[in-house]
Amino acid sequence: MRRAPAFWSAKPGWQSTLLAPLAALYAAGTARRVAQPSKFVADVPVICVGNLSAGGTGKTPVVIALAEMLRDAGKQVAVVTRGYGGSLDGPARVDPEKHSADEAGDEPLLLTGFAQVWVSKDRAEGARAAVENGADVILLDDGFQNPDVAKDLSLVVVDAGVGFGNGKVIPAGPLREPVKVGIKRADALVLIGSPGQREAFEAPPGVPVLGAELLPLQTGLLLEGLPVLAFAGIGRPEKFFETLRRQGADIRRTVPLGDHQPLTTGLMTRLDGEAKARGLQLVTTEKDAVRLPPSFRQQVMTIPVRLVFQDPTAIAELLAPLIEL
Length: 325
Hints:
- By secondary structure, the chain is α/β, with parallel strands linked by helices.
- It has 12 helices and 13 strands.
- It has helices spanning 14-18, 20-34, 59-72, 101-104, 106-111, 123-132, 179-182, 195-200, 237-246, 265-278, 286-289, 312-323; strands spanning 46-50, 77-81, 92-93, 116-119, 137-141, 153-159, 188-192, 209-216, 227-232, 250-256, 281-285, 300-303, 305-309.
- The mean pLDDT is 92.
């Protein structure tokens, strides 16, 4: 996936003005799609984790956090996802022993460590397959603008570091639909960022805000003073690099890649050669690690992060009416 244009994160300028007619068409198309009736109404709770912006905002860590909460409550959780970047049409249950990132997508492979995962380009068929295979709660990964599956709870994830960018709809800005339109269908915002970033964010009125932060999992990895070459192909690589800095890593070079960008043998050979020549440790994210060529997996340090809710009782109370936590 290509990196977002710089003007998407700036104050609206001539580019967004020029693209306003196309943005209006895009917003109208989204509105027509959202207004369509659902193709599948599950007899189990469906919790949608989506966003208003294109690209990564932190949905995967939210899905992982919810899957762990639901699993701890004794629920059989299934994640249903389109499998962005993968070739499977589905519905197919993802098996990390059989499926590669090229087939299933990187996020579905990562999520198999926390729940059963169903990839399906047709989300209604994916949800149906999940229910038929014993799921008693469905986590719909993305799909906030897709009406195919009826939703019982919709959480909109926002990266507090960038908010809603310039506030304009694609291609004039990063939004899939106007904030004031999309927010009416949301039950809550999950605002991810440092305490300072969350405090500076101006939340739209009329919707509860659940503050959260991504923190490194305590794995015993020693980052303090370690000279590293860090690379990341996530929605906003800078978030990962900042996490490494906070952990005391001595970052000598950063390589921001496009979201879901393939980690080809050629690219990794080049990064590995540079790291060895400079005496640096290659470091990346969990999501990127599943896309590594097998021959490089032992050479790259993976830094897992987990989402921590500012107020765990608030999310538990939101889920309770659906799943009796």
